[in-house]
Amino acid sequence: MAYSDEMAARVRELKQFLLQNMYRHYRVVRMGDKAGRILRDLFESYVGEPGQLPPHFQGQIERDGVHRVVCDYIAGMTDRLAVDEHQKLFDPRVRA
Question: Rounded mean pLDDT of 15-30?
Fold first, then answer.
């Protein structure tokens, strides 16, 4: 079932508005870039030194490989935990 011509025009207008004013808003783009840096930093740090992972995850490395284990560990993090972990690993003022 398709939209009427009038409704299809309204849907296109709404999508264009959202794209310009929300999805590509400079603050959204900035936060997405920041989140990407945090995830990349965590991944590279854990892969480079897997001893930073909790013991349960370290024990899975031989079976699954370090990259898979690190991906699974990071995927299970909340946003807040990822930010906190990043601060602990990269901000010398924050206690590890």
Answer: 92
